[in-house]
Amino acid sequence: MTAGVKALVFDVFGTVVDWRSGVAREAAPFLAKHGIAVDPAAFADAWRRRYQPAMEAVRSGARPFTRLDVLHSENLEAVLRDHGLDPATVAEAELDHLNRAWHRLDPWPDSVAGLTRLKTRYIIAPLSNGNVALLLNMAKRAGLPWDAILGAEVAQAYKPSPAAYLNTAAILGLRPEEVMLCAAHNGDLAAARSTGFLTGFIPRPMEHGAGQTKDLAPAQDWDVVAPDFGALADAMGCGGG
Questions:
Q1: What is the C-alpha separation between 74 and 119, in angstroms, rounded?
Q2: What is the CATH number of the domain that holds 224?
Q3: Which domain holds residue 170?
Q4: Is 17 helix (H, G, I), strand (E, B) or coil?
Q5: Cβ contacts of residue 173 below 8 Å, gap of 6+?
Q6: Strands of the chain, DSSP E
Q7: Do β-strands 17-18 and 106-107 pair in parallel, antiparallel, or remain unpaired?
């Protein structure tokens, strides 16, 4: 039952926006300029593979909370070294521009219209590992109609740590059972459910490209399963479809 839900919060990378295509698009001219012979999508995948290990150092307490822009920058330099380019030989402004590719990602085709419908009835906000500046810039560029932008540094925790969910609910002045996480990732939803959140699964079968093999179907009996944000709005009783 979803009758008591007051806020819908969203995973962003993969659920709301297409990170892989956006990062590949931004990386392509950089790779060509510096003679790195790798497919831009493969480069995006390599950069993304360092995402969870970097956050795990924060989650485990091995390093203090560090915003995602900084982690992305460190990971970018490591991936460039893996491909034979010393980042010290690249202008800082050029590296920074590429690192901010994550600020310039495109929404999935149904995201803006679906969020706009959901906003008529619910508080909508990101519950993302992204930092506030990243999510703000992304929203301005993509037209994402958030009611609030709650980056990970607001919660001071990275998903799937329970604090990431519980602190977000507290910031919104809501009980966990009044909040639904909407995500394309079963693991994220499982972590949210364990803290008392309701859950909505929206598969994004092209998040990792045509060969994607995970998160193609719900792994549990999530409270809502919808093929896209329009269907999610229908399921949540929002008009305008």
A1: 36
A2: 3.40.50.1000
A3: 7-16+108-235
A4: strand
A5: none
A6: 7-10, 17-18, 106-107, 123-126, 179-183, 198-201, 224-225
A7: antiparallel
DSSP string, 70-121: HHHHHHHHHHHHHTT--GGGS-HHHHHHHHGGGGSPEEPTTHHHHHHHHHTT
Q: Which residues pair with 180 in a beta bridge?
A: 8, 198
**Is the residue at 185 inside a domain?**
yes
Closest listed residue to residue 20, CA positions, set 228, 210, 229: 210
Model pTM score: 0.96
11 and 123 belong to one structural domain: yes
What is the C-alpha separation between 173 and 213, in angstroms, rounded? 37
Tell me the per-residue pLDDT of 55-83, one tens digit each, with 9 for 90 and over: 999 999 999 999 999 999 999 999 999 99
Establish if 41 belongs to a structural domain.
yes
Residue-wise pLDDT tens digits, 23-60: 999 999 999 999 999 999 999 999 999 999 999 999 99
| Inside any domain, residue 240 | no
The answer to whether position 2 is within a domain reads no
* Distance between start and end Cα atoms, the chain: 22
My answer on whether 81 and 30 are in the same domain is yes
